[in-house]
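Hallway conversation turned thread

IA: we were arguing at lunch whether anyone had actually written out non-specific serine/threonine protein kinase end to end. Turns out nobody had. So, for the record, here is the sequence (456 residues) and right after it the structure tokens. Reply here if something looks off.
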Amino acid sequence: MDWSSLTCSAAVLIILLLPLGASDDRLVPSKPLSPGITVVSDGGDFALGFFFSSGSTPSNLYLGIWYSSIPELTVVWVANRGTPVTNGTSSAPILTLTNASNLVLSDSDGGQVVWMTNVGAASSSSSTEAVLLNTGNLIIRSPNGTMLWQSFDHPTDTFLPGMKMRIRYRTRAGERLVSWKDAGDPSPGSFSYGCDPATSIQMFLWDGSRPVYRSTPWTGFRVKSEDEYLLTKTSAIIINLAFVNNDEESYTMFTVSDGAWHTRFVLTYSGKLQFQSWNSSSSTWVVFGQWSPHECNRYGYCGPNGYCDETVLPIPTCKCFDGFKPTRTEEWDNGEFWKGCQRKEALRCSDGFVPLSGMKPPDRFAIVGNTSLRECAAACGRNCSCMAYAYANLSSSIENRDLTRCLVWVGELVDTGRLGASTASDTLYLRLAGLDAATGTKSLPLLSHYASVYDI
């Protein structure tokens, strides 16, 4: 990610209904919420209420949560983003907590339901309450304190500290951030971000169904990363990023240090996933990082069998692996990389593998179950169609579990990168024509790029 500090662009053009009065931090069945009234979290950081969008005429009305403690209106969650309501002269929308423990948004008192939660009937109680926590999470809570529903399980375009971006293994379902349609319209846009439902060990940013950016497959690294170090230098924020894996689900979440600036990930309507913090001194959102930071590491930008070398400064560039050449040399030289690279000579089943460390492994891999590095190498080596493999021992990152990760690739290598020294990087073992599997030596001239690095 590009951690250079930037100033956030144009403010979101939405209009907040000026509160006629403010309630406390919760709703109960006898106390509905209407335009002009807000629910404010106990610590004063967040507010729940109605706001107008400037993206339509007449303006649509939405139920949302925003930061109440900063002057620039920044909405972090919207309930009815696909079903806006209007505020008429004779009727007004209303949010009610029912005796069935559901939040129900109607276009007027007793009118058409436009949005509601889905809490089971077994949870019915007149003592249930909806509480806005100081994390920005709106929860429905039973009288005994059990949480029945939470807004954190239904994100819109914003990822807040304490939220989980998850994949459930049984259903392959999970949360995604979905962008606004434009700066003034909170209805769902075309960009989304979340876990890969096919593998659950990498994250994607999509434009519709087309991938825009892909993270590295999880290597088992824990919290310590460059994010924490660089943000600490601001003397304002320490961020801890974690990946959690258990028998039922895997998820990513982050936390920030006590007293830190308001901090969030947001998927903008233009398709940028930004890490932002509110600077109260300058009254601006500061962008500490952005995906994707460079054109080179957009999904598949370097074409099949090409890779984006992020260690090349100041601008990362596309390269071919040694043993490969550009498929179209003239186009490659002119900066058109989408045709990628091809092998200089055909592979044989007896060809061996060269280890390339500091890599972002390609997409479209198959996962082999718990195995050793030797067994992972053998599984790929005995398959003449296997082009590469990567291995990681995840046990040190998952308490009380013995888990390894063997990835293998058959066919073209797509969306590969070179990251250099990074906890998120991996060692990719690439099958190389002319490399003797037994001795690890090259029968042809030594590799031009990796020979000196890996002593091949």
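OS: looked through it. The longest helix spans residues 373-381.
IA: good, adding that to the notes. The chain has two domains: 6-293, 302-454.
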